[in-house]
Specification:
The structure holds two protein chains of two kinds. Helices cover 23% and strands 20% of the residues of chain A. By secondary structure, chain A is α/β, with parallel strands linked by helices. Chain A has two domains: 93 residues, GMP Synthetase, Chain A, domain 3, CATH 3.30.300.130; 75 residues, no CATH class. A four-stranded mixed sheet of chain A has the order 4-7-6-5. In chain A, strands 1-2-3 form a three-stranded mixed sheet. In chain A, a hairpin with a 5-residue loop joins strand 6 and strand 7. Chain A is elongated and about 60 Å long. By secondary structure, chain B is mostly helical. Chain B has a single domain, classed as Up-down Bundle (Ferritin), CATH 1.20.1260.10. Chain B has eleven helices and no strands. Classes of the chains: A alpha/beta, B mainly alpha. Chain B: It comes from Dinghuibacter silviterrae. Chain B: InterPro entries: Aromatic_CoA_ox/epox, Ferritin-like, Ferritin-like_SF, PaaA_PaaC, PaaC.
Chain lengths: 178, 248
C-alpha cells in the first residue's frame, strides 16, 4: 500500500485492503489478518448496484477448523467496513484450498520473531505418523540458538507448539509450519 | 434425506468425542497433556461445526449449527458408540482417541476425493489436524503399554472394554450406502484393512496384540445409543434447554 494517500474512494478495493491491514489477529495481535494470509479475495460492488452505499464481499480462509479467533475476526471485518461506509458487508468462508503457513508474508515472520514467537519454518511439514520422531529444528526467537527442544506439540492456541531453548533456558511458542 | 443425515453422523462423531475430551480440561495428569487433549477437543468441535453448518444450509428452514448441536435428543444423534463411552482413566481416554483418530485419518484421506466439493475441502483441512491427534494418541498407547506394570494393566483393561465398539466404525449405515454409490460418502467398510494394519503396528510397539474378541457393538449410527450419551447431552445442552434461544 505505498500510494495509500491517493486512495480516496470507497469503491477502490485497495481502500478495503488498507482497512483490513489494521485488523489484528486476536490471538497474535502483532499480526494483521493480511499478514496471516487468510484474506483470499475482496470484491467491491458500486453504490448503484445494491443501494446508496458500496457493498463489499470479503472471502477468508480459516487457519484451523476449531480456531475460536475466526468468529472474532469475521465480526471485526464487518464492524470495520460498516463503520467505513460499506453496506452490505458479506464475509464468506472458503475452505479450499486449505490455509498454509506459506501464505504468511515475510514481514509477518519478522514481526512474530520480534514478538517472541518462533515463525513457521519455510518448508511446511505436517507431522508424519511415525511415533516419537525427531522434531523440526526451530530457532529460538530470544537468542537465535537452534539448540532447542519441543516441550509439547500443542500450545496455547491451535496454531502453536511449545518449545524451550537449551541455551538461554527460555520457553517460547513456535508457530507450527503447515 | 441421506445427505443431511450423513453430515449429522460426521458432525456428531466429532462433537461427542470433542465434548468427552473437554471433560478433561483442568484434570489432565500434567499441564502439557491437559492442553494437548483440549486442543484436540477444539479441533474436533471445529470439524463438527463445519459439518453442522453444511447440514444447516442443506436443511434450511431456520436450522442452524447451534440448533443441531443443542436441540436434538439422544435418538436423533448419529454418532458411533465408541465416542460416547465415558472417559475412564488416562489409558482409556487415550486408547479411545487412538482408535478414533486412526479411523478419522483413513476417513478424511478418502473424503478428499469425494465428488462433493464441500466434503472434499473439509476432508483436506481436517486430515492435517487428525495426523497430530493420531501421532499423539499412538505415542501414549506405546508409552503406557510399554511402561510400568500398572500402566500396562490399565491399558489392557481399556483395550478389553473399548474393542467391542470399534467394529461399528466400518459398518455403513443405510444413509451412507446410498451416498457411497453417488461418490459423495466414504465407503467405510473399505477403510478397515488399513485401520487394522495401523492399530496392529502400534499395539505391537506397545507390546500388545489385537484382541480376538468380536467387535460386535453397534447402533449409534442409526440412533440406538448406550445410556451414556444422554448424560453427555444433559450437560452440553443444559443452557439451551433451560434458557431457550439464549446467546452470549
Amino acid at each position: 500500500m505505498s500510494d495509500t494517500a491517493t486512495i480516496k474512494t470507497l469503491s477502490d478495493p485497495r481502500h478495503v485492503m488498507e482497512l483490513l491491514e489494521n485488523i489484528p489477529d486476536p490471538e497474535v495481535p502483532v499480526l494483521s489478518i493480511l499478514d496471516l494470509g487468510i484474506v483470499r479475495d475482496v470484491r467491491v460492488y458500486p453504490a448503484s448496484e445494491q443501494g446508496a452505499f458500496p457493498g463489499v464481499t470479503v472471502m477468508i480462509t480459516p487457519t484451523y477448523n476449531g480456531c475460536p479467533a475466526v468468529d472474532v475476526i469475521r465480526m471485526n471485518i464487518r464492524m470495520t467496513l460498516i463503520a467505513a461506509g460499506y453496506t452490505p458487508v458479506d464475509v464468506r468462508t472458503a475452505l479450499s484450498p486449505a490455509w498454509s503457513t506459506e501464505w504468511m508474508s515475510e514481514a509477518a515472520r519478522e514481526k512474530l520473531e520480534a514478538f517472541g514467537i518462533a515463525p513457521p519454518n519455510s518448508v511446511p511439514s505436517v507431522c508424519s505418523l511415525d511415533l516419537f520422531q525427531q522434531d523440526e529444528s526451530v530457532r529460538c526467537p530470544h537468542c537465535g540458538s537452534y539448540h532447542t527442544e519441543m516441550v509439547s506439540r500443542f500450545g496455547s492456541t491451535a496454531c502453536k507448539a511449545l518449545y524451550k531453548c537449551k541455551d538461554c533456558q527460555e520457553p517460547f511458542d513456535y508457530f507450527k509450519s503447515h | 434425506m441421506p445427505l443431511p443425515t450423513y453430515l449429522l453422523h460426521l458432525g456428531d462423531d466429532a462433537l461427542v468425542l470433542g465434548h468427552r475430551n473437554s471433560e478433561w480440561c483442568g484434570h489432565g495428569p500434567v499441564l502439557e497433556q491437559d492442553i494437548a487433549l483440549t486442543n484436540i477437543a477444539l479441533d474436533l468441535i471445529g470439524q463438527a461445526r463445519l459439518f453442522y453448518q453444511y447440514a444447516a444450509t442443506v436443511l434450511g428452514d431456520g436450522v442452524t449449527e447451534d440448533s443441531l448441536a443443542y436441540l436434538r435428543d439422544v435418538y436423533e444423534y448419529r454418532n458411533c458408540l465408541l465416542v460416547e463411552q465415558p472417559n475412564g482413566d488416562w489409558a482409556h481416554t487415550t486408547l479411545r482417541q487412538f482408535f478414533f483418530s486412526a479411523y478419522q485419518y483413513e476417513l478424511y484421506k478418502a473424503m478428499k476425493t469425494s465428488t462433493d466439493e464441500q466434503l472434499s475441502a473439509i476432508g483436506t483441512r481436517s486430515l492435517k489436524e487428525v495426523t497430530y491427534h493420531l501421532r499423539w494418541s499412538g505415542e501414549w498407547v506405546v508409552r503406557l503399554g510399554d511402561g510400568t506394570e500398572e500402566s500396562r494393566a490399565r491399558l489392557l483393561k481399556a483395550l478389553e472394554t473399548l474393542w467391542m465398539y470399534t467394529g461399528e466404525l466400518f459398518r455403513p449405515a443405510p444413509y451412507e450406502e446410498v451416498l457411497v454409490e453417488a461418490g459423495v460418502a466414504v465407503a467405510v467398510d473399505s477403510l478397515e484393512g488399513s485401520w487394522m494394519e495401523h492399530v496392529r503396528r502400534v499395539l505391537g510397539q506397545a507390546g500388545l496384540t489385537v484382541p480376538l474378541a468380536p467387535a460386535f457393538q453397534a447402533g449409534g449410527k442409526t440412533g440406538a445409543h448406550s445410556e451414556h450419551l444422554g448424560y453427555v447431552l444433559a450437560e452440553m445442552q443444559f443452557m439451551q434447554r433451560a434458557y431457550p434461544g439464549s446467546t452470549w
